[in-house]
Transcriptional regulator, DeoR family
Amino acid sequence: MSRLKQISEAVRDAGSLGVAELAALTGASEMTIRRDLEVLAAQGVLERYRGGARSLLLRGSEPPFALRSDENTDAKRRIAAVVAGLIADGESVVLDSGTTCLEVARLLHDRRVTVMPLSLHSVNALSSSSSVTLLVPGGRPRPGELALTGPLALASLQALRFDTAVIGCCGLSAEHGLTAFDLEDASVKRTAIASARRVIAAVDASKLTRTALAHVAPASSLDAVVTDAVVTDAAGDDGLTAAGVAVVTA
Amino acid sequence: MSRLKQISEAVRDAGSLGVAELAALTGASEMTIRRDLEVLAAQGVLERYRGGARSLLLRGSEPPFALRSDENTDAKRRIAAVVAGLIADGESVVLDSGTTCLEVARLLHDRRVTVMPLSLHSVNALSSSSSVTLLVPGGRPRPGELALTGPLALASLQALRFDTAVIGCCGLSAEHGLTAFDLEDASVKRTAIASARRVIAAVDASKLTRTALAHVAPASSLDAVVTDAVVTDAAGDDGLTAAGVAVVTA
DNA sequence: GCGATTGAACAACAGTGATGTGCGAAACTC
DNA sequence: GAGTTTCGCACATCACTGTTGTTCAATCGC
């Protein structure tokens, strides 16, 4: 685990912590801790005060992109590989924001497909490709995440029809369907789903036990879910298969 | 001058050149030349054949972004500084593609302004800013340049009204007005100009003696031109002042 | 006012990217 | 089809960038 993540979690759990304590915890010098706190403050993770920092992470929100990106990389790569395999050459794909979808973007780099990514991270991953037809949606990038939102994003999606939507959500269950932490994100995802013929959700197992604030779409609007480990109840039922969703384990 | 640029110019001037000749010219090893030719071929600058490469640069087109970016940096910085000074806090700005406008983007990073850049390079320069309200237009990024074009870009621009448009064109003269090398680009620039109350052209002196293929707008549609050196005729007339354009020398 | 904290400057260090060399494989020439 | 040239991969080397730690003067809070 990176030191940045370690600090962010320690501060979140304690509410607030001093520089000296964090230095002792991580084994780094106080100067390094100060520099780390500076970048975390710039990301909005915490707030500096003289001698330490207090957490700004709310329970309902998710940790910022930079801290999630190198987390669970194996599972994400495996999920992304399966998703990329489900996409045929020549298809047009709308690709959601999030770290799992970013891995999918990387795998599509040398494929002959048309892609509209909903985050600038994926746009950058694909902008050097000569085989991908890249379409950038408009919108306001959310800080850190760089997910494009707002009326311009919705208008871009509504103007087009895609073969496949790859959605990476914050929560998924048979009961509550797809959910997201951010309201703006939720409406972008909803619009993306509506403009695609086929919908694939790329979801690591931790999301299957979680429900986030904003409702995106019912589970029945998904055609397939790709995940790394299926969560089943006592009867061996994942709840999704019954809703007509093909569940693929990577 | 970078070796890449040196190679690209040598091949352009000779039409085609061998690897050994380029190695002798640049003083680098043949292996290095091969690697360079590979990246230039990927950029569409030239075409490899066994033993050498031939130029693909047409007279009517401009050299790719990567080769222009570290060229004339001083003049671009000075022009950009003046342009940034003409923009007031709180303004909304549409920022054209090109290397000069990218410098403007960098100077706007810590300002309180709303910016819609027309190239992904400038988007990336601004996406880490917390003070800038960043708006991304939709569109298809042109390879290398990463300028956003096409119907999505036009729609994004038409949906908004800006205080100021900063335009970096390929050619400018009192007689032919603003001109651009690319037809798609030209219509994006034209739309940007139409959706802004005030139009500033950021143009280094080399563009003032050049006219490109596609007409963008007459010189009279500009409010100000910022350049590094004014070109005047025998009577000391730059031709633009007479058209009601304020010419500022950086 | 005093002590703790901070941020800037400098040095050491590791990680990354660029370059050159050697060699086997592929391609072109005759 | 044989010989020669060219190519690209693998590895070693090198410079450079970014990270970390140390020191010290300035600053902040009590």
In short: The radius of gyration of chain B is 19 Å. Residues 19, 30-31, 34-35, 50-51 of chain B lie near DNA strand D (CB under 10 Å from a C1'). The longest strand of chain B covers residues 196-202.
